[in-house]
Prior knowledge:
alpha+beta; 11 helices; Chitinase A, domain 3; 4-stranded antiparallel beta sheet
Amino acid sequence: xxxxxxxxxxxxxxxxxxxxxxxxxxxxxxxxxxxxxxxxxxxxxxxxxxxxxxxxxxxxxxxxxxxxxxxxxxxxxxxxxxxxxxxxxxxxxxxxxxxxxxxxxxxxxxxxxxxxxxxxxxxxxxxxxxxxxxxxxxxxxxxxxxxxxxxxxxxxxxxxxxxxxxxxxxxxxxxxxxxxxxxxxxxxxxxxxxxxxxxxxxxxxxxxxxxxxxxxxxxxxxxxxxxxxxxxxxxxxxxxxxxxxxxxxxxxxxxxxxxxxxxxxxxxxxxxxxx
Length: 275
């Protein structure tokens, strides 16, 4: 109510009347007769309320009278320059303007989809369609020996060290701030230490034998998986946020595609390729 009362008071200020009159004078001087459409600039309660609201959001206080006068002057100037630029066709061929208008239209198309809430049945259907995507990572116990940076020389060294490990010999590499052994580590824990590439490579390693090299963000490693737990079936209550994010992304993409298809029907698109 405070914003609405402030806006109502501002509409009674002489400056507001002056600005509106000034905008009309501007149109007369430009040689065009004002009409009730795009040549009319109205500073009403909605406009002033929005200006005051944005100021409050930025500075956490109400603007003074002088500050409000400045906000109104800037808004009127924006409208005048914008409309004059359109009348001169300055927006034509401007890729920045085209892209910005496209983004606004796309935002309008997906507004409803972004606010909808999926049902449990819809989310469960997504899980059932691709359970592996939402399954909890199996816990893995393994040992690793760091060889060094991923270079041809170190790859050759890795083959030699791998043969020694398989014979039961002790092998050590350059020191790194990562444990040589992990017990029941989750995929997230492994990725945090070695990176996603290493985690994916480790999934393909059969337990019980030294193998490698497997690359990580640090370089090359030889690994031996001693135990790997079974993947657990995803439960909606535990993965709800991930599934809902996927559902909303699909819903907004579908809404955007459908809106574009409807609009495209109203145009005759002719593509003339260079010969």
